[in-house]
Amino acid sequence: MPKSPESTDQERSTFDPSIQTENIAYSPVELLTCDGCSRQNPPNRINCIYCGYELAITAAHFAEARPLIRKLEAWEQGFNIIYQAKIDGDELSNKTIAPFVSLEPGEVEAILNVNSPMPVVRVESFKLAEILVGELGKLGLRCSVVSDADLAANKPLVRLASIEISETIFQFVDFNTRLTTEVPFGDLALIVLGHLSNTRTDLVEKRKRKGAELLDETSSFTDETVIDLYTRSDSRGFRINPAGFDYSCLGPEKTFLAKDNIGRLVKLLSALAPNARLVDDYSSVKRSLSLVWEIESRSDAQGIRRLGIGKTGFGKVESTSNLQQFTKYSRLQWHLL
Question: Whole-prediction pTM value?
Protein backbone atom coordinates (compact mmCIF):
# COMPACT_ATOMS: atom_id res chain seq x y z
CA MET A 1 0.00 0.00 0.00
CA PRO A 2 1.53 3.39 -1.01
CA LYS A 3 2.55 5.79 1.76
CA SER A 4 0.47 8.91 2.33
CA PRO A 5 2.08 12.35 1.80
CA GLU A 6 1.77 12.98 5.55
CA SER A 7 3.83 9.90 6.48
CA THR A 8 6.52 10.81 3.92
CA ASP A 9 6.84 14.33 5.35
CA GLN A 10 7.07 12.89 8.85
CA GLU A 11 9.89 10.53 7.82
CA ARG A 12 11.82 13.44 6.31
CA SER A 13 11.44 15.57 9.41
CA THR A 14 12.66 12.75 11.64
CA PHE A 15 15.72 11.85 9.50
CA ASP A 16 18.79 11.61 11.71
CA PRO A 17 22.00 12.66 9.80
CA SER A 18 24.10 10.91 12.46
CA ILE A 19 23.29 7.55 10.87
CA GLN A 20 25.38 8.54 7.80
CA THR A 21 28.70 6.78 8.40
CA GLU A 22 30.67 8.85 5.87
CA ASN A 23 30.39 12.43 4.72
CA ILE A 24 29.96 12.10 0.95
CA ALA A 25 29.41 15.80 0.29
CA TYR A 26 32.04 18.51 -0.11
CA SER A 27 32.29 21.04 2.68
CA PRO A 28 31.79 24.75 1.90
CA VAL A 29 35.51 25.29 2.46
CA GLU A 30 36.39 22.78 -0.28
CA LEU A 31 34.15 24.33 -2.96
CA LEU A 32 35.68 26.57 -5.64
CA THR A 33 34.06 29.87 -6.55
CA CYS A 34 33.95 30.61 -10.27
CA ASP A 35 35.37 34.04 -11.15
CA GLY A 36 33.09 34.12 -14.18
CA CYS A 37 29.63 33.48 -12.68
CA SER A 38 30.39 33.39 -8.91
CA ARG A 39 28.79 29.96 -8.49
CA GLN A 40 30.22 27.19 -6.31
CA ASN A 41 31.92 24.21 -7.95
CA PRO A 42 33.15 20.87 -6.59
CA PRO A 43 36.95 20.79 -6.11
CA ASN A 44 37.45 18.07 -8.74
CA ARG A 45 36.50 20.46 -11.54
CA ILE A 46 38.92 22.37 -13.79
CA ASN A 47 36.27 24.47 -15.53
CA CYS A 48 33.04 25.84 -14.10
CA ILE A 49 30.20 23.34 -14.42
CA TYR A 50 27.79 26.21 -15.12
CA CYS A 51 29.57 28.64 -17.47
CA GLY A 52 32.75 26.80 -18.50
CA TYR A 53 35.07 29.49 -17.10
CA GLU A 54 38.51 28.24 -16.02
CA LEU A 55 38.62 27.83 -12.25
CA ALA A 56 41.45 29.25 -10.15
CA ILE A 57 43.11 25.96 -9.24
CA THR A 58 46.53 25.84 -7.60
CA ALA A 59 49.22 23.17 -7.38
CA ALA A 60 48.29 22.46 -3.76
CA HIS A 61 44.61 22.16 -4.66
CA PHE A 62 45.42 19.87 -7.60
CA ALA A 63 47.55 17.55 -5.46
CA GLU A 64 44.79 17.25 -2.85
CA ALA A 65 41.60 17.17 -4.94
CA ARG A 66 42.94 15.49 -8.13
CA PRO A 67 40.61 17.26 -10.62
CA LEU A 68 39.31 15.17 -13.49
CA ILE A 69 41.43 15.61 -16.64
CA ARG A 70 39.15 15.59 -19.65
CA LYS A 71 40.32 13.91 -22.84
CA LEU A 72 40.34 16.56 -25.55
CA GLU A 73 38.74 16.08 -28.94
CA ALA A 74 41.09 16.10 -31.93
CA TRP A 75 39.74 19.48 -33.14
CA GLU A 76 40.26 21.24 -29.79
CA GLN A 77 43.33 23.39 -29.18
CA GLY A 78 45.23 22.18 -26.14
CA PHE A 79 48.62 21.94 -24.48
CA ASN A 80 50.87 18.89 -24.71
CA ILE A 81 52.97 17.72 -21.79
CA ILE A 82 56.14 16.22 -23.24
CA TYR A 83 58.11 13.67 -21.24
CA GLN A 84 61.80 14.29 -21.91
CA ALA A 85 63.78 12.29 -19.37
CA LYS A 86 63.80 10.59 -16.01
CA ILE A 87 65.04 12.69 -13.10
CA ASP A 88 68.20 11.07 -11.77
CA GLY A 89 67.80 9.09 -8.58
CA ASP A 90 64.00 8.80 -8.70
CA GLU A 91 62.25 5.44 -9.04
CA LEU A 92 59.29 5.72 -11.38
CA SER A 93 55.94 4.18 -10.49
CA ASN A 94 53.66 3.70 -13.48
CA LYS A 95 50.66 3.14 -11.19
CA THR A 96 51.28 6.45 -9.43
CA ILE A 97 51.84 8.38 -12.66
CA ALA A 98 48.86 6.92 -14.56
CA PRO A 99 46.04 8.89 -12.80
CA PHE A 100 47.84 12.19 -13.46
CA VAL A 101 47.84 11.61 -17.23
CA SER A 102 44.57 9.66 -17.62
CA LEU A 103 46.32 6.52 -18.90
CA GLU A 104 46.61 2.92 -17.79
CA PRO A 105 49.89 1.87 -16.07
CA GLY A 106 50.79 -0.29 -19.07
CA GLU A 107 50.30 2.66 -21.41
CA VAL A 108 52.52 4.84 -19.22
CA GLU A 109 55.20 2.16 -19.34
CA ALA A 110 54.99 2.02 -23.16
CA ILE A 111 55.58 5.78 -23.40
CA LEU A 112 58.41 5.90 -20.87
CA ASN A 113 60.20 3.00 -22.57
CA VAL A 114 60.61 5.04 -25.77
CA ASN A 115 64.07 6.57 -26.01
CA SER A 116 62.74 9.84 -27.37
CA PRO A 117 60.69 12.79 -26.02
CA MET A 118 57.03 11.77 -26.06
CA PRO A 119 53.64 13.37 -25.28
CA VAL A 120 52.04 11.91 -22.15
CA VAL A 121 48.81 13.95 -22.03
CA ARG A 122 46.95 16.83 -23.72
CA VAL A 123 45.14 19.29 -21.46
CA GLU A 124 42.89 22.25 -22.06
CA SER A 125 44.77 25.10 -20.32
CA PHE A 126 48.34 26.28 -19.92
CA LYS A 127 47.83 26.73 -16.18
CA LEU A 128 46.82 23.07 -15.78
CA ALA A 129 49.76 22.01 -17.96
CA GLU A 130 52.21 23.91 -15.75
CA ILE A 131 50.75 22.35 -12.61
CA LEU A 132 50.99 18.87 -14.11
CA VAL A 133 54.62 19.44 -15.12
CA GLY A 134 55.37 20.26 -11.48
CA GLU A 135 53.47 17.24 -10.13
CA LEU A 136 55.08 14.86 -12.63
CA GLY A 137 58.45 16.32 -11.66
CA LYS A 138 57.80 15.23 -8.08
CA LEU A 139 57.14 11.71 -9.42
CA GLY A 140 60.45 11.60 -11.30
CA LEU A 141 59.58 12.85 -14.80
CA ARG A 142 61.22 15.87 -16.39
CA CYS A 143 58.61 17.37 -18.71
CA SER A 144 57.92 20.48 -20.77
CA VAL A 145 54.85 22.07 -22.38
CA VAL A 146 54.28 22.55 -26.12
CA SER A 147 50.96 23.92 -27.36
CA ASP A 148 48.92 22.60 -30.27
CA ALA A 149 49.19 26.11 -31.74
CA ASP A 150 52.99 25.77 -31.83
CA LEU A 151 52.80 22.35 -33.49
CA ALA A 152 50.27 23.69 -36.04
CA ALA A 153 49.32 20.27 -37.42
CA ASN A 154 46.80 21.84 -39.83
CA LYS A 155 49.44 24.12 -41.38
CA PRO A 156 51.27 22.14 -44.10
CA LEU A 157 55.01 22.21 -44.50
CA VAL A 158 56.38 23.76 -47.69
CA ARG A 159 56.48 20.97 -50.27
CA LEU A 160 59.71 20.84 -52.25
CA ALA A 161 60.06 20.09 -55.97
CA SER A 162 63.85 19.80 -55.90
CA ILE A 163 67.02 20.76 -54.06
CA GLU A 164 69.89 22.43 -55.83
CA ILE A 165 73.30 22.34 -54.18
CA SER A 166 76.13 24.84 -54.55
CA GLU A 167 79.42 24.93 -52.66
CA THR A 168 77.95 25.86 -49.26
CA ILE A 169 74.23 26.47 -49.86
CA PHE A 170 71.08 24.40 -50.39
CA GLN A 171 68.49 25.91 -52.70
CA PHE A 172 65.02 24.60 -51.78
CA VAL A 173 62.60 24.92 -54.72
CA ASP A 174 58.92 25.24 -53.75
CA PHE A 175 56.75 22.63 -55.52
CA ASN A 176 53.79 25.00 -55.95
CA THR A 177 55.34 28.43 -56.54
CA ARG A 178 58.80 27.44 -57.82
CA LEU A 179 60.26 30.09 -55.52
CA THR A 180 63.72 29.31 -54.16
CA THR A 181 64.83 29.48 -50.52
CA GLU A 182 68.56 29.55 -49.88
CA VAL A 183 69.72 27.67 -46.81
CA PRO A 184 73.42 27.60 -45.86
CA PHE A 185 74.63 24.13 -44.89
CA GLY A 186 75.17 25.30 -41.31
CA ASP A 187 71.59 26.58 -40.98
CA LEU A 188 69.99 23.20 -41.64
CA ALA A 189 69.19 22.15 -38.08
CA LEU A 190 66.91 19.13 -38.33
CA ILE A 191 66.15 16.20 -40.65
CA VAL A 192 63.08 14.10 -39.77
CA LEU A 193 62.42 10.86 -41.62
CA GLY A 194 58.94 9.35 -41.45
CA HIS A 195 56.04 8.02 -43.49
CA LEU A 196 52.48 9.04 -44.33
CA SER A 197 49.86 6.25 -44.30
CA ASN A 198 46.29 6.48 -45.53
CA THR A 199 43.53 3.88 -45.65
CA ARG A 200 40.20 4.22 -47.44
CA THR A 201 37.24 1.84 -47.40
CA ASP A 202 34.22 2.45 -49.66
CA LEU A 203 31.10 0.73 -48.35
CA VAL A 204 27.62 0.29 -49.79
CA GLU A 205 24.98 -0.89 -47.32
CA LYS A 206 21.31 -1.72 -47.37
CA ARG A 207 19.64 -0.32 -44.28
CA LYS A 208 17.23 -2.51 -42.34
CA ARG A 209 15.45 -2.27 -39.03
CA LYS A 210 17.78 -4.77 -37.39
CA GLY A 211 20.91 -3.16 -38.80
CA ALA A 212 22.75 -2.70 -42.07
CA GLU A 213 23.51 -5.37 -44.67
CA LEU A 214 26.85 -4.89 -46.44
CA LEU A 215 26.38 -5.01 -50.23
CA ASP A 216 29.82 -3.93 -51.45
CA GLU A 217 33.21 -3.04 -49.99
CA THR A 218 36.42 -1.73 -51.57
CA SER A 219 39.60 -0.93 -49.61
CA SER A 220 42.84 0.82 -50.50
CA PHE A 221 46.05 1.64 -48.64
CA THR A 222 48.91 4.02 -49.38
CA ASP A 223 52.18 4.50 -47.54
CA GLU A 224 55.01 6.79 -48.58
CA THR A 225 58.28 7.80 -46.95
CA VAL A 226 58.79 11.54 -46.46
CA ILE A 227 61.63 13.79 -45.31
CA ASP A 228 61.01 16.96 -43.27
CA LEU A 229 63.71 19.64 -43.13
CA TYR A 230 63.96 22.55 -40.70
CA THR A 231 66.25 25.54 -40.39
CA ARG A 232 67.15 27.01 -37.01
CA SER A 233 64.93 30.06 -37.55
CA ASP A 234 61.82 28.53 -39.19
CA SER A 235 59.46 26.16 -37.40
CA ARG A 236 57.18 25.62 -40.42
CA GLY A 237 59.66 23.42 -42.27
CA PHE A 238 59.98 21.86 -45.73
CA ARG A 239 58.69 18.45 -46.81
CA ILE A 240 59.96 16.09 -49.50
CA ASN A 241 57.31 13.73 -50.90
CA PRO A 242 58.59 10.95 -53.18
CA ALA A 243 56.05 11.71 -55.89
CA GLY A 244 56.98 14.75 -57.91
CA PHE A 245 60.40 15.35 -56.36
CA ASP A 246 63.42 15.71 -58.65
CA TYR A 247 66.36 13.73 -57.26
CA SER A 248 68.89 15.23 -59.69
CA CYS A 249 70.87 16.57 -56.73
CA LEU A 250 72.02 12.98 -56.15
CA GLY A 251 73.98 13.05 -59.40
CA PRO A 252 75.21 9.58 -60.41
CA GLU A 253 73.78 8.12 -57.17
CA LYS A 254 70.22 8.65 -58.46
CA THR A 255 68.28 5.44 -59.20
CA PHE A 256 64.87 4.57 -60.63
CA LEU A 257 63.51 3.56 -57.20
CA ALA A 258 62.13 6.32 -54.97
CA LYS A 259 62.82 4.19 -51.87
CA ASP A 260 66.54 4.07 -52.65
CA ASN A 261 66.65 7.74 -53.59
CA ILE A 262 65.07 8.78 -50.28
CA GLY A 263 67.71 6.91 -48.29
CA ARG A 264 70.56 8.32 -50.38
CA LEU A 265 69.17 11.84 -50.10
CA VAL A 266 69.11 11.60 -46.30
CA LYS A 267 72.76 10.49 -46.33
CA LEU A 268 73.73 13.36 -48.65
CA LEU A 269 71.97 16.00 -46.54
CA SER A 270 73.50 14.62 -43.34
CA ALA A 271 76.97 14.64 -44.89
CA LEU A 272 76.71 18.24 -46.12
CA ALA A 273 75.11 19.47 -42.88
CA PRO A 274 76.81 17.35 -40.16
CA ASN A 275 75.42 19.54 -37.36
CA ALA A 276 71.83 18.83 -38.39
CA ARG A 277 70.06 16.43 -36.03
CA LEU A 278 68.64 13.33 -37.70
CA VAL A 279 65.41 11.86 -36.28
CA ASP A 280 64.44 8.58 -37.91
CA ASP A 281 62.51 6.70 -35.20
CA TYR A 282 58.92 7.64 -36.12
CA SER A 283 58.00 4.12 -37.27
CA SER A 284 59.08 2.62 -33.93
CA VAL A 285 57.31 5.22 -31.73
CA LYS A 286 54.10 5.53 -33.77
CA ARG A 287 52.13 3.09 -31.61
CA SER A 288 53.06 4.87 -28.37
CA LEU A 289 52.33 8.27 -29.92
CA SER A 290 48.79 7.07 -30.69
CA LEU A 291 48.02 6.86 -26.97
CA VAL A 292 47.96 10.67 -26.87
CA TRP A 293 47.97 11.78 -30.52
CA GLU A 294 45.46 9.45 -32.11
CA ILE A 295 45.43 8.52 -35.78
CA GLU A 296 42.81 10.64 -37.53
CA SER A 297 39.74 8.69 -38.67
CA ARG A 298 36.65 9.81 -40.58
CA SER A 299 33.36 8.39 -41.78
CA ASP A 300 31.61 10.32 -44.56
CA ALA A 301 28.16 9.53 -45.98
CA GLN A 302 27.98 9.33 -49.78
CA GLY A 303 24.21 9.11 -50.30
CA ILE A 304 22.45 6.59 -52.53
CA ARG A 305 24.76 4.44 -54.69
CA ARG A 306 23.77 2.20 -57.61
CA LEU A 307 25.26 -1.30 -57.84
CA GLY A 308 23.42 -2.50 -60.90
CA ILE A 309 20.05 -2.49 -62.56
CA GLY A 310 17.44 -1.80 -59.91
CA LYS A 311 19.93 -2.35 -57.06
CA THR A 312 20.86 0.55 -54.78
CA GLY A 313 22.28 1.13 -51.32
CA PHE A 314 23.65 3.84 -49.10
CA GLY A 315 27.32 4.57 -49.55
CA LYS A 316 29.87 5.79 -47.03
CA VAL A 317 33.63 6.20 -46.93
CA GLU A 318 35.72 5.31 -43.87
CA SER A 319 39.29 6.61 -43.87
CA THR A 320 42.31 6.97 -41.61
CA SER A 321 45.41 9.14 -41.89
CA ASN A 322 48.50 9.73 -39.76
CA LEU A 323 49.26 13.09 -41.43
CA GLN A 324 48.49 15.22 -38.37
CA GLN A 325 50.23 12.81 -36.00
CA PHE A 326 53.47 12.77 -37.98
CA THR A 327 53.37 16.54 -38.53
CA LYS A 328 53.06 17.06 -34.77
CA TYR A 329 55.92 14.67 -34.07
CA SER A 330 58.07 16.30 -36.74
CA ARG A 331 57.51 19.86 -35.51
CA LEU A 332 57.96 18.76 -31.90
CA GLN A 333 61.56 17.90 -32.74
CA TRP A 334 62.16 21.51 -33.80
CA HIS A 335 60.72 22.85 -30.53
CA LEU A 336 63.06 20.54 -28.63
CA LEU A 337 66.22 21.70 -30.41
Answer: 0.85
